[in-house]
Specification:
Strand 4, helix 6 and strand 5 form a beta-alpha-beta unit. 55% of the residues lie in helices and 9% in strands. It has a five-stranded parallel sheet, with helices on both faces. It is α/β, with parallel strands linked by helices and 253 residues long. The radius of gyration is 19 Å and the shape is globular. It has a single domain, classed as HUPs (Rossmann fold, 3-Layer(aba) Sandwich).
């Protein structure tokens, strides 16, 4: 039985110990308006204090609902929220590429989706470097990926998989929700239908499988999942191997 309150306390202690052992100061969290970043920001606020957590809301043709949720979350936990609008930067990037290459726009769909998290990651590290210098102590970029996303490669390589510390990477989506409830994340945020805020589709629509099915494959070898769905999940896992494992030539010694 998953004890959400116990796991939440263990994560908070994990953060505190890591920061103490390495003489670190604060955390920067990309706030999307969804549950994962909500839970991460709540955990870090409880671990380090609200004065040592900065949330960055980075709209890029984003939904107003996500902005409202980001503002509500920051107010709820009391951390500072900065807005850094990437819309013009993204538009310039895409227009410049199109001007130089004259591509078929259908060929750019995935590139355009993936450039957004890469721009956001750049922004988070820009802020962490700035705050480290300004406040005379190291700020880390906190990751927000959960175990199900990582297993099927539902992240952008060089984008939202890049972080200095991960606290949800061993939790399934349902476990993230339970931890969120345990630390008091507003109900409608922690139970919000997950989407990337980029494509207009829910995560499960894009993947073609449910997060509960991914969790079943990870934890129970898919005992409660149809064979066709199980195979699809395993295929997603295998095809995304390159995202987490970089082939590196080693000299014979």
């Amino acid at each position: 039985m998953f004890d959400a309150e116990k796991i939440a306390n263990e994560i908070i202690e994990f953060i505190r110990n890591y920061y103490k052992e390495n003489n670190l100061k604060g955390a920067v969290v990309g706030i999307s308006g969804g549950k994962d970043s909500a839970v991460v920001s709540g955990l870090f606020t409880k671990a380090l204090g609200k004065e040592n957590v900065t949330g960055i809301w980075m709209p890029c043709h984003s939904k107003e609902e996500d902005k409202r949720n980001a503002l509500e979350l920051a107010s709820h936990f009391g951390f500072e929220l900065k807005e850094f609008d990437l819309t013009n930067i993204y538009d310039y990037y895409v227009n410049q590429f199109s001007k130089l290459n004259n591509p078929n726009m259908d060929d750019l769909i995935d590139s355009n989706i993936n450039i957004k998290p890469r721009l956001r990651t750049t922004t988070l590290y820009y802020y962490s470097s700035y705050l480290s210098k300004k406040n005379k102590g190291t700020y880390l970029v906190a990751g927000t990926s959960n175990k199900c996303e990582i297993y099927v490669g539902y992240f952008t390589k060089g984008g939202d998989n890049v972080a200095d510390i991960q606290v949800l990477a061993d939790l399934t989506v349902d476990e993230v929700i339970s931890v969120g409830e345990a630390i008091g994340v507003p109900y409608h945020i922690v139970h919000k239908t997950p989407d990337d805020g980029l494509s207009g589709l829910s995560d499960e629509d894009k993947l073609g499988v449910k997060y509960s099915e991914i969790a079943d494959v990870i934890e129970n070898d898919g005992k409660n999942t149809e064979e066709e769905i199980k195979q699809k999940i395993n295929n997603l896992h295998q095809r995304s191997y390159h995202k987490s494992n970089i082939p590196t030539f080693r000299k014979n010694r």
